[in-house]
Amino acid sequence: MLLRLRRTRRMGGKGAFSSLLLLPAWVFLGVFFFFPLARIFAYAFDSQLLRDPRAWELLRKVFGFTVYQAALSTLLTLLVALPLAFLLARYAFLGKSLWRTIVNIPFLLPVLVVAAGFNAFLGERGWVNLGLMRLLGLAAPPLRFSGTLAAILLAHVFYNTTLLVRILSYSLEHLDPRLEQTARLLGADGPRLFWYVTLPLLWPALLAGSSLVFLFDFTSFGVILLLGGAKFSTLEVEIYVQGVYMLNLPLAAFLSVAQLICTAGIGYLYAFLLRRAAVPLSPRAAVSNLRFPRRWYERLFLSLMLFLLIVLFLLPMLSVPLRSVLRLEAARGERGEVRYGFTLDYYQELFTNRRASIMYVPPLQAMRNSLVFALLTILFSLALGIPAAVALRHASLPARLSDGLFLLPLGVSAVTLGLGFILVFGRAVASPLLVPFAHTLIALPLVIRTLQPALASLPLRLHQAAQVLGASPWRAWWAVEWPILWRAVLTAAMFAFTVSVGEFGATLLIARPEYPTLPLAIYRFLSQPGGLNYGQAMAMTTILMLFTGLGLLLIERLQGGESRF
Amino acid sequence: MRRILFLLVFFALLAISACGPRPATTPIAPPAVSPTASPLPAEPTATSEPQPVTLTVMTHDSFAASEDVIKAFESANNVKLVFLPSGDTGAALNKAILSKEAPLADVFYGVDNTFLSRALEADLFEPYRSPLLDAIPPEFQLDPQHRVTPVDYGDVCINYDKAYFAEKNLPVPQTLEDLTRPDYKGLLVVENPATSSPGLAFLLATIAHFGDPGYLDFWRALKANDVVIVPDWETAYYTNFSASSGKGPQPMVVSYGSSPPAEVIFAEKPLEEAPTASLIGPDMCFRQIEFVGILKGTKQRELAQKFVDFMLSPTFQEDMPLQMFVFPVNPQAKLPDAFVQYAQIPQQPARLDPTQIAANREKWIQAWTDLMLK
């Protein structure tokens, strides 16, 4: 061991005050989460099912695959995200903030569109297959994509890399470079340096990020349904099928409870590991150790990573805007090549209400609604999340209890919660104010999990030192901890924004036609046949991508301090 | 300091835009009607008229109507219509059943014959016999007690890519049995009945034709003939079907009888002819009939009745085809040209009794899943 890392003991004494900080989040979750869930379970749960072997058999069958694909997806996401985070945290290169934004966008794309994007790229008549067919003179497409496990895994990596990269690169940027320098001086080479110094320091962030990614994969719905095809089923998909198509609410409730128990379990496991692993050190507020890749292996690393970014993120994503300005010339029934023509018709059509429908959605208005909902979501989730994350630092009993429970909203199926909402809120379920609240429900766990590792690596010593020097607790927090936390808060805000703009399920749960959002408008187009509808969906998605890309770039600018190239 | 400034600017921006999302400029716009939780103050209305009453209509997500048609009803009856799209048919029905004690709406539109028994069992609706029902063919009137009233129907049929069959000189299948012939190997894409309502409708058509358990043999043969199964209509149509904009690999898809006219109406360039057509052989299509019902507990019984009458009136009935791509049940309603030209109506659609569907839905879907997805 090159370096012994001292672990400071957490304070247990300030429990009463810190528990108070948990109150707002608890009240919020109580009203918008636990109460509706309790109501729907009380309504639908049937204890007979617990003795029904068929229910257990179904659970066993679905549960196995759910865990299997989630574990595999998380592992793959880690493999992609870790080097990417290193690249973004340690190196300066051309167009870096643009690349950063590109990694961020997948997280908010509607699954239907992602499926269409991947299919246009890798599907049976996608560009890759068409190219290979022409190149090798094949009669049939060589790659099978949709309906395979590979498609599910690829889409999960595509979606969730953002999360891990964000959380990891934040931690990497804030590591004290002197630790690594010292280790180097003491003779540690690359791998040993990574294994004995960087990795232990990165552990809290790795845990936080992977547990979130695992949860997202664990409760994945759209990806499994649309890209996995009809063969694969997870708990979340089965809850939907039982609840909506079989109208078997008791069985749906039974499966929901199982899913929630697993979610809480994952939450507590994470909290337990984090408490053992967090190493408070003096973090650095700003980062000064960015460097240009100069040596050959650094350049190779950069090129490899950029190649990965292009293939994994840029190309599937680009197929959507490309499709929004391309008309496919009807070589109908021909299984070979398709001709393309340029058009702006889809965009023009977006702005006309051709059928004079009351359900018509003007794009600007959808954008404005999405923006307002997103800003409200940021506000709510930060207001609830920051105090909660601060309180979670302390090892008080309420904090320990909260740790796992705060993750639960990620583990509930929209179908179940939506029905609970109706039981609790009655007619008020149609109020547009419920939309940002529903988004906050999903954003809050992300916000807390983003702030937690940042706070966990913040030594209480700093705070105590400020107090010894005469600062009030409030002032010590504002002057010492806030400047260090600031960037983590912005990262959290970015997640809240992303969740809100891309969230479709919650909006649908309670949406009013007068307050359409961008994702809602996209689904409306895709649910009817006709080339114009398809093109408009692609055009609307392109607008969504640009709109959020700009939003994310703006938040990134706010982070300041970082070198921009 | 600069960061704090940014923060201030950010929250200022937030405050500016936080005056609430802007409602659409549609006649249904005014904010929540419910006295319990109206987040925004009600808009001032015309001074001379008394305050319009609100009628809330719960629907599935596919509901649409023309602005002026809705407006006409509103001004004629001094009412504000509020529509609550509540998910697809099953989800919307679930919500209506759950909120039975304190109904979210006055009227529920969109329950179809595959879910009808379930809705009637749940005792959601107040009986009402509209005088306009006399004009509606009895084949659509599935509830003799008139708790629900038929509004529209649509046929779930297989659409095919006309160009493909013409080019290959391949005759189109005439019966369900034809689909299992080697000529059509790998050419058909269907939706999973466990996750898609046209998928379920097509499964019901095969059950109506082959009976239970005969339908399973047919599906076994289809499986051997490389039928492609996808989870939902969007994927089937836009990703797999060769005549849609997705240019997929299969020239036959389970879709709707109204899809061919939709292809013409929403064509990128004006088309002389529909690129697709439906297979309407005997029992090849399943007829979905959609109903409207007055929810028990409404305080607007009279207005709700007027709305049901309105839905059966030629004005609304003629508006439906181009808005929702369904057919009116009222034979007096004139069909739009595109429908007359490109939509085919099967002479002998498959039929199943709603009570039979309700009793066996789970069993049939399960057996299908066990056979096809294993």
Gap between N and C termini of chain B: 63 Å
| CATH architectural category of the largest domain in chain B | 3-Layer(aba) Sandwich
Mean pLDDT of chain B: 84
Radius of gyration of chain B: 23 Å
Give the N-to-C terminal Cα separation of chain A: 38 Å
How many E strands of chain A?
A: 2
Content-based structural category of chain B: alpha/beta
Can you describe what's shown?
The complex is a heterodimer of chains A (565) and B (374). With 565 residues, chain A is an all-alpha fold. Chain A has one domain (15-279, 289-343, 351-558): MetI-like fold (Orthogonal Bundle). Chain A is 71% helix and 1% strand. Chain A has 22 helices and two strands. In chain A, α3 crosses α22 (531-559) and α12 runs antiparallel to α22. Chain A is globular, with a radius of gyration of 24 Å. With 374 residues, chain B is of the alpha/beta class. Chain B has two domains: 51-152 and 289-337, D-Maltodextrin-Binding Protein, domain 2 (3-Layer(aba) Sandwich); 155-287 and 341-372, Periplasmic binding protein-like II (D-Maltodextrin-Binding Protein, domain 2, 3-Layer(aba) Sandwich). Chain B is built from 13 helices and eleven strands. In chain B, strands 1, 2, 3, 4, 5, 6, 7, 8, 9, 10 and 11 form an eleven-stranded mixed beta sheet that branches. In chain B, α2 links the parallel β1 (53-59) and β2 (79-85). The radius of gyration of chain B is 23 Å and the shape is globular. The interface between A and B is large, with 93 and 102 residues.
